[in-house]
Every structure is written in structure tokens, then in C-alpha cells.
């Protein structure tokens, strides 16, 4: 069993080497959001007012989709309190940034800040963790899903990235609804309704065809970009009994210009060490993590991480392995035998077949 440490253990050893300004809000990040908003609004207005060829509308859809994703990354940063500190302003700006992805600030802080960050990769408590073989045994639906051949499931899984963030947000609303106090439920409800009201209102104004280019296609593109990161954040890592960011998180490598556009969202281990720190300083944090525990820090090019996700299953076996129950193929996780340059596997018995017989 590897020795795990909490994120506080690492933070306490790295924080003394960081400049004081690293622990202060960075309001200048809002200029990036303003640029995204100007491009987004201009592109939607152009699609709405002019009868352009579908190819030009398609190109504008791509631009809008990139803006949707960029604003989502900024909203994530704002709602961690790293841009502005006043609660009402944080929620207002965060809500505006997340409006394209149709997620409310109160729900996001409950789901992401207060639950995912506190219980990262915990088998039962992390709402973003993938299921275990135990859950497969308890769920008829999951057993049906895992009868589908792996190549088909892998292809469908990657195609579903185009809608997964929005769908998961709705699932989280239903999941956490009972946890909100009655006084907060009204705000959570309206924060969910308002973004959809804006986009449905746009539909009524400009018609279905233009709306597909102005919102639907950009939403799919924005989801894909955001989920491209989120899917690599933890899904190659093991489930862990201690919230150890070096064990349960992965930093991916992207070109520098992409990091600028996406507010350093690629630095995910760093984010889990210092969630209340502006991502502006995460490259500096990375340097000190590598000095402190170079043997435990995981990073890889994003393309390699996505290929590894494509080739490995998303079902945990004994917390440190990923299993394809149909064929009984077992792969390691990061730190437990996973080699992304040679994705070999062990073979176990047909687990799903055994479970069906037991049922």
C-alpha cells in the first residue's frame, strides 16, 4: 500500500516557497472573460442578423463553442474565489461565465467545490468518480451496458463528451437537490432555469436553423473541449482512501497558447493542491511539486491521455485497477502498473458472466 498524504500535507510544504501574491485574488483574469464575451456576442449577432452560407455559420459556431469552453474555465476559477472575493460578485460573475454551459453557481460550488474537491476519487462520496465492479453487481442497467462490446462502448463514450457536461450538470441538480436548505432551493432552481430561458428565448427570436448554429453546435463543441480536460483529470488514476492529489489527479500537457486560452486548466494536480489559488501561478506550483515528490507526480501530453482513455475501460476493480468485465481484461492505473506507452492487460475470468449467474 502506497503512503498517501492529504492535499494539506503537500500544500504546507510548498506554500512557504510561493510569493505572497499567489494567495490573493487576480481580478485581471476578467479581461480574458470580457474578450470571450465580446467575441461570443458578436458571433451570435452576426449569425442572427445575416443570412450567411452554412459554412460561415459553421465557422462562427466553432468560434462560439471555443468561447463557451473558455468562459467555463474562467467560471470554474471565479467560483473558487480566486478572481474576486465578495460572495455576491463571485456568484454573479461565475453565473454569467457558466451561462453558456447552463450550470448555476450554487449548484457548481456544492457539487464541485464542496464535494468533488473534498472527496476526490472516493469510491462512494465523489460524484464524479466512475463506478466499481461492486456497483456493476448491484445494477442491472450497468450489467446491460457492460455487455455491449468494448469498442462500441469506447466510441460511444467519446461521442458522448459532446453533451456530457450539460447532462451531468442536470444529474447533479437532481442528486444534490435534497441537500440544499429550503431557502436556497429557489435560488438553485432559478439559476438552472435562467440560462435555458436565455437560450430558448434566442430560439424564439431567430428560428431553429440559426439557433442550431448560434447555440446547439457551440454547446456540443464547448462540452467536448471541457470534457476533454475533465475526462483526463482523474479517470486514469486509482480510487483512493485519502484525498491525495498526487495519487488521484493528472496534469496534462498542452501547447502554451492553449494554456493561455484555457486559464491553465491543464494543471489539474496543482489545482487540487491549491484550489483557492489563481491558476496563473500553477506553473510555479508545478516546479515545486516536482522538487518535492518527482516520483509521485503524473503528467502526460493530453493526446496520450485521451488515447489511454480510449483503450482502457472505465470500471474499477479493487480500486487500483480498471477492468473490462466482458472479456476479463484488467489494466493498471497511474502508480499501479499503467504504462501509457504499452497498454497491456492481465486476464481474469468473465466477471460479468459470473455476476449474471449469481443473480
UniProtKB/TrEMBL annotation:
One of its GO terms (molecular function) is oxidoreductase activity, acting on paired donors, with oxidation of a pair of donors resulting in the reduction of molecular oxygen to two molecules of water. GO terms for biological process: lipid biosynthetic process. Residues 55-300 form the Fatty acid desaturase domain. The keyword Thylakoid does not apply. The chain crosses the membrane at residues 30-50, 56-75, 154-176, 188-206, 212-230. InterPro entries: FA_desaturase_dom (IPR005804), Fatty_acid_desaturase (IPR012171). GO terms for cellular component: membrane. Signal peptide: none annotated. Keywords: Membrane, Transmembrane, Transmembrane helix. It comes from the Bacteria. PANTHER family: DELTA(5) FATTY ACID DESATURASE C-RELATED, FATTY ACID DESATURASE 2. This is Acyl-CoA desaturase.
